[in-house]
User: Fold this.
Amino acid sequence: MRRGACPSLDTPMETGDGLLARLPPATMSPASWVALAEAARRAGNGLLDITARGSVQLRGLRAETLDLATELVPADWPRGALVMTSPLAGEALDEVRDPRPLAARLAAAAPPGLPPKATVLVDGGGALHLAAEAADLRLVAWSEGWRIGHGAEWLGVAGEDDAFVIALDLLRAMARDGTRVPAGGMAAVAAPEPIGLHRLRDGVALGLGLPFGRVDADTLIALAEASGARALRGAPGRALLAIGVPDADALRRHAATLGFITDPADPRRRVVACPGAPGCASALTETRAFATTLAPLVPVGALLHVSGCAKGCAHPRAATRTLVGMARGLGLIRRGRAGDTVADMLDPQDARAALAREFAAHA
Assistant:
């Protein structure tokens, strides 16, 4: 795999539980999600992740099952991860404009040789916007056209054809120079909450959370088959959107019995945890079961990051408190990232009491 590139079915990444392949966010039929879950079950270890940006990961693949996985994953599931649209593109009632045509033009015309993980966001606006997502290049729906952002700089507003030309020129320069200009979210707003009801031009969508982004194949199949939705899509915030559901209340109740998060106030939404050991070969500690026990301690407005190692893959930004797995125990970091300076070392058996004191002081 090219250094820094995202893992894919063609170039999966070795992890602690086998090979990992990632597919970009896509609005697909429930039947396609069932097929994807079958691929996870038959070619992998039956576990899937929805990432912080809404991508889907198949876990536990093996060299000898990659061909089977490729065969089972729906052929029309997008493979390219360069261009990302807002999750309810073309559907949201409050969308400023449909980002899909511009996104498709850019994806088709993108030059070869772009740096790994280069990202273009085409954001139609509305409640489930992409303002908090990092990108090299972003085009945001504006009343007069598309507002163009390059790195941390806004370049202006242009009509769709001009915006396409400007964006393509910037991508060509990135490919020529081999450099990225990524920036964090360019609006001083929090990431939108995907869990709950979202009004569409035709019906409603129901957003469901996955505990720490994880779901098993059987559970995903059960949800997809019962949803009655026109489509499902992974969304930023480790969530799944059921688009065009006939009975949102019934689906919400059913999803809760399957283990999905249906309440945005669920304390697990205030904790980020990577796969941890043994699922990740870099992790020095188990994370998710531990994070579940710690979640009730985290007050509203705070964020706890439980990271298996100092790389902090699940949350590269600062958190209110971070616990990081280290050879000598758990490192506690206050208002920082997993790779920042450790303020205190904790014995795992004492971590719950220590976190209770930390968050009592925070409150």
User: Anything to note?
Assistant: The chain has a mean pLDDT of 94.
